Amino acid sequence: MESVNGSWDDIMAWMTQHSNMQEPENIISRLVLSAASYFVWQERNNRLFSNNHRTPMVIAREVVRTVRLRMLSFQFKWRPGLRRLLEKWQIPRGNLEIDPG
User: Fold this and answer.
1) Left if phi > 0, otherwise alpha if psi is -120 to 50, otherwise beta: which for 90?
2) pTM confidence score
3) Which of 6, 63, 73, 99 is the most buried (most CB within 10 A)?
4) Is residue 44 part of a domain?
5) Is residue 33 part of a domain?
6) Which residues 6+ apart lie within 8 Å of 36 measured at CB?
């Protein structure tokens, strides 16, 4: 998703193209989009109904934390570049299945 600019139309076009692919990057992108949508919606409701405000940085941290926690339940099959992705998200190597093949 690094090639997508920030417009909603471009994000949705990318998601439509890649929604059925089971690559870890695509799964994580879907998780990030889902979590971001949820927390932005939650923030909107908090501001309207409880006069509660969080900064964008706090919301972004909550999105990252939620996606990371979900990723901790995954078992990733080894493939080139996966270790770097797991390190970026601080996922332990124990979540990486190495095929004795």
Assistant:
1) left
2) 0.80
3) 63
4) yes
5) yes
6) 63
Q: Which residues contact 24 (CB under 8 A, 6 or more apart)?
A: 76, 82, 85
To the nearest whole number, what is the mean pLDDT of the chain? 85
Reported as a pLDDT band with limits 50, 70 and 90, residue 99 is low
pLDDT band at residue 57 using 50, 70 and 90 as cut-offs: very high
Contacts of 19 (CB under 8 A, 6+ apart): 26, 30
At a CB cut-off of 8 Å and minimum separation 6, what does 75 contact? 95, 96, 97
5, part of any domain: no
Structure tokens that stand for 40 in this block: 């932005």
Asked whether residue 78 is domain-assigned, the answer is yes
For the chain, the domain total comes to 1
Token code pair at residue 45 = 């409701």
φ/ψ of 38, rounded to 5, equals -65, -50
